[in-house]
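Box 3.1 A note on notation
Throughout this textbook, protein chains are presented in two layers. The first layer is the amino acid sequence; the second is a token string describing backbone geometry. Keep the layers aligned when reading.
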Amino acid sequence: MTMREKILEAAEKRVRGVGFAEMSFRDLARDVGIKSASVHYHFPTKPDLGEALVTRYAEQFKEELDRIDQIELGAALDAFVGLYSKALVLGESICLCAVMGAEAIGLPENVNARTKAFFEMNKAWLETLLTEHGVEHAAETANLIVAALEGGMIVASTSKKRAIFEQVAEAAIRRVAN
């Protein structure tokens, strides 16, 4: 693993745990055992780091989406929810883009653009799946599912109750089944 990758990994862990605004280059340097100037060598500014971080996260998420078998709608939706569920570790982390989305007002524009692209990618994947399975209002339903999962993660994390996320996910998916 290159130093750049180590920094990105450390940054993802920090942002998912405390938020982008709270993450500092000094913290990252300490996490990976280098000087702060070395973090700046790889990422001259915090917005550069944020953009690279969200891009990397989205690419990894896309690889997972591409592995989901879309033949049966229910199984594909369960697998999709599973990706979000895996990102929720109570007391430790939630989806990187849930954090970035929650901090959107204070984020640099380039980081917001990448975060928006992450959500658009997820909604487009769902819309395609739903359309192929004849679900009415596929775009609206895809928006609902992504918003429910992201919001459910934030509320579950705040409440320290995973059951909230599970209830929200089940309700959003049930809407498709009916």
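Residues 74 and 174 are 10 Å apart (CA to CA). DSSP finds nine helices and no strands in the chain.
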